[in-house]
Each structure stands twice: as structure tokens, then as C-alpha cells.
Amino acid sequence: MNVTLSDAVDLGIRLFALFNVVALGAVSLVWLERRFLGRLQGRPGPNRVGPFGLLQPIADAIKLMSKEDVAPGSSQRLIFYAAPILVFVPAFVVWLTFPLARDLVVRNMEMGLFFFVAISTLSIVGLVLAGWSSNSKYAILGGFRAAAQLVSYEIPIITMILVVAMLSGSLDFVSVVDAQSRVPFILVVPLGLVIFLIAGLAEVGRTPFDIYFAESEVVGGPFVEYSGAHWAIFFLAEYVNTFVLGILGALLFLGGWRWPFGENLPQLASVALLMGKAYFIVLVIFWIRGTYPRMRIDQLMEVAWKWLIPLSFALFLVTAFQLKFEWPWWILTIMSLAILAVPVLVQSQKQRNPALALAARYAANAVVVEAKPRPSPAAAEDTPPATSETAEGTSA
Amino acid sequence: MILELAHFQILAAALFCLGLYGVLARRSAVMVLMAVELMLNAVNINLVAFSAFRDISIVTGQVIAIFVITVAAAEIGLALAVIMRLYRRRGTVNVDEIDWMKG
Amino acid sequence: MGLILFYILGGLTLVAALGVVTTRNIVYGALFLLVAMSGVAGLFVLLFAEFLALVQLLIYGGAIIIVILFALMLTRTTDFSVATEHRRWPMAAVISLALFGLLAGAAIGDSGDYNTYQRSGISIEELGKGLFENWAVPFEIASIVLLVALIGAIVIGRSGEEEGGEGDQG
Q1: CA of C50: how far to CAs of A7, B67, C26, in Å?
Q2: Between chains, do B25 and C95 touch, taking CB under 8 Å as contact?
Q3: Cβ of A124 and C124 within 8 Å?
Q4: Tens digits of pLDDT across chain B (103 residues)
Q5: Structural domain total, chain B
């Protein structure tokens, strides 16, 4: 284990460059989201601070830094200040294995995919601690919901990463991109990118899965007591995580910097291609935010446990079969589209006959209460003799 | 001085004994559980150290360590379910007060 | 270099473990446990078990600590007025020290021919082969253990409140 000075200097340069790339990327995402959302909603978006509103993130940062630093009067002050760091650091540390081109990587670990999975689960602890140390009921509720949501949606993400690892035969990112030199994995397993995006949206906490910190639901959830610079850390962590989702989608499913132009591009063009794909996925994420309403927590958990997890396991099995029996790759495309067709058909059936679905749900939840013999007519209540109550009256 | 197996063995022994102290001396059941996790980690360090120092191509140490982590996760899930049930019934998780089977 | 890293990581782990077993604030204890687990993960990297280090971080830091924090918050054991230590804690300390002396003595006295600190690690392929070829049956049993623990935790943790219930449903 000999570490020379040149190794250390090289590592330092790479880390510095990576930090700049990530910070610039996250800041550009702040601006891009507000402009893009503005166009989607028929308004111009920020255009006052600098040309095209480009200095808006800086204005946001100055505003947030200049706010008063208020902390709750509980006894958990240390944890209150430490929780944002626990949320923020994993978002940055996962970038250590992401390659921007063949040689532009801090360390292409042998288990890069698994490194991402392991480090990204550490941010859940930070959210739970943030919720609890705020000493507020909304915060604790939001923290619990956040943990439940994040832990549930980890399973589809990990399964999709496993599918990609199986298809490329390796766990490091450069090999995954090399395995897509002819066909990107989005054509091989389209369902993979769909599940990865949906589960990734829930992991990052973006609409439609942002109920655990929504203002109209839990008044900000675990972030309610944080002000100014501390809240800015959470805010930045969310954007860095969105960027991570974009880069991962580009590396794992869209072919990274290799497809479709191959290896003969100059390095800058490769990086630009990768970033273009990443920003494309990020724009799709923003598009979803501008289009869909927020899901309730029980709908969210239902999507995870009843739909995404079985679908991801089915895709995993199908991929394993294809690799074992050495079928051609387009069989996997057909089968993953077939698996994707199942929830689409079920959902469209439900939509065509809403009464059918509602009647089925009422029949399943019906509780038949027999009439209790009333001893005296003194207690005059309007209880009808035989009732069939529903245990939970949820709307479709 | 180079790294030797004894370094890791002593470290694992110290971790194990700290965990043992935690199990014996702490009052809250959750604290006892955390000390048990320390003991399991000490065992893992020992297993992996033996695997690294003896012959790294024999993966037995690491595989058994994976199983130990798996069983630890299962155990803590169940133990915490029992603790929460106990808390709901009796209102306490103090191991000194959980003595209804005594005598 | 390896020795320096060992001392740093080992020292961090031991200090954090000491914090776990002696702190009065139980949430700090859970955080100290997180630090101790991360230290152990670092030691695994030092021992060429990178996969195990990541598994350690994932399972302990990403799941077990969260479950412990949930249990802490839901059992409200955060009032610091009660003593956190048993009445007979000096006896426990003596027992632990005696055991440590025994184990450390055995370690020092025995390190004869185990000094080859291998320079090459193990690839994840070999680990996978070992896990799924030689240890396939324990692997399946481990998955059944997890299933049993999952079902058991749901059953035990579920029907706790005995206040009314919902009609005929359990």
C-alpha cells in the first residue's frame, strides 16, 4: 500500500475537478428547473437577475445565507445541526465512481454500482434524525414517512442495478458503458429505465413522490424547522441527487459516452454527450414534476410494494433466464415490454370501468355488522338495523 | 512495524469486550441490542482478518461474515419488534423492570 | 501506511464503541454505533474485503441504524433522568476486562505463522463463486432466516393495541 506524492496530488486534482463539476451541475439544475417549469406552466420563469435569469441560483444562495439561523428550543441541538450534513455528504460521495469519460473518473472501483447503492442509503439516517431533532410533530411524521418511502423504493432501484450488472457482467461503470457499445440497455430492457426512473424519483423525493416534505401536507416535514443555510444544504442535496439520477440513467441505460458514436470522439465531445443524455433525463424528471399531482403516502407505498417490486423481480427473473439460455437480446426487449403491458392493461381496465373497481374494493372491505338488540328506546340514535360498513372510504 | 494478525485480533477482542460490558451493564433493552451488534461486528473483524492473513483466496472467512451480517439484521428486526410490543404492553423497556416471569 | 490507517480506524471504532456503551443519551449511542460500524467497514477495506465493507455500510448504516432509531423514537426512552447503567456495572467492567485480557493474551501468544499480509485482494467473482458454489445451502437457509424474521416481526409488531379493534377484522 504505497501511496506516493504524485498519487496524492493526482487524487486531489481529480477531487477538486469533480467537486466543481457537481456543484456547477447542481446549480445549473436549479436554474434549469425554474425556467423549464415556467415554460411548462406558460410563464417565463426567472428572468430578472442576469441574462435569462442565469444568476438566479446565486441570488437564491445569497438570500438563504442571509436568513436568521433559528434552531428549535429542544435539547437535541447537536443532532439538529449534524443532520443536514448526514443527508448531504452521501449525495456528493457517490460521485467518486461516476466516470464522465473513459479516464475522467476519480476511482473506477471494481464495485462502483454497489458503492452507489451502499452510500446512498446513508442519507436516510440523516432525514430521520432531522425529523426527530426538530422536536415538532410535523417533523417527526415527515421523517418517518421519508424513511418508509426511501426504504421501500430502494428495492426496485437495487434490482434494476442488479439487472444492469447482470447484463454487462460487471459492477464497475466503465464496463457497464462498454457493454452498451452496440445496443444501449434502454433498448434491451426498456422496463428497466422506467422502473429506475420511477423508483429514483421516489428516492430523491421529487414530485409526484414528495409528500414527506410538502408544504400542504406536513408543512415541510423534516425540513420545517430548518432555516437559511441549513435548509440550503437540504435543497442542494436534492438537486445533487437529481443530477445523480440523470447521470446514472445516462450511464446505465442510455449508453454513457460511447453510444452511438463509439470510442473515437475527442474527450470533450464524450463528456458533452454524456452530459447531454444526463440533462435529457433531468428534463424528463422536471417534466414529470410539472405534469403530475402529488401522490398520497398510501398510494405511494402501494405503487412501490404492489407494482414496482413485483415488476422488478419479474424483469430480474427474465434477464436471468435470457442470460442462462443465451437467447438473443431482443427477446429481453419483447419480454420486458410484455411485463410492462401488465400494469398498463390492469390500470386501463380499471379506468374504463371505474364502477367495477370501486365495487370490487367495497366488496373486499365490507364489514357486515349485525343488529344489536336495543334494551330500551331511551337512547334514540339513528343506527340502521343492518349496516355494511366499509373499513376505509378511499377515493379512486 | 508491519500489520500483523495480532493487531486485528486484539482490536476484535476489545470490541467484543466493550459489547459484553454493554450487554451486562446497560438498562435499556435497545442499548443492550446495540451492544450485541458490537459483539457481532467484533466476530466479523476476526473472521475477515483470518481470511486475509491466512490465504485470501479461501473466501470462507468473508462468506461467513456475510452470513453473520445477515443473521444480525434478521435478529435485530425481530428483537425490536418484541421490544416495541413489550413497550406497548408494559410501558417500559428497562430490563430491570421486565421480571414478570421471576419466581 | 497500512499500520497508520489501522490505528486511525481502529481507534475511531474503539472510541465510538466506548461511546455506545457509556453514553447517557441513547440517540447519541445510536449515532456512535453508526460511527463504529463505519470504522469497521473501513477495517474491512484494509483487509481486502471491499464487498463486505459496502455490505456492512448498506445493512448497518442504511437499515439497522434506522430501525434502531425508529425503536428509540417510538419507545420514548429519551428521558435522561433514569440511570442508564445497571447497579452492578463495576462487576460487568471487571468481567469484560478479564475476558479481554484472556483473548488478547491468546492473540499475542499465538501469532506465529500468520503474518503474511497479502498484497492482492479478492475479486468479487471469487467471492460470488464461493458463496454460490460451496456455500449455496447456507445461503438458502440464510434467506429463509430472513423470511422468518420478516414474517415474525410483522406478526409480533402488529396486533399490539387491545382497544376495540375493527369489527370482525383482526
Answers
A1: 21, 16, 30
A2: no
A3: no
A4: 778 888 899 999 999 999 999 999 988 889 999 999 999 999 999 999 988 888 777 888 899 999 999 999 999 999 999 998 888 888 888 888 888 787 7
A5: 1
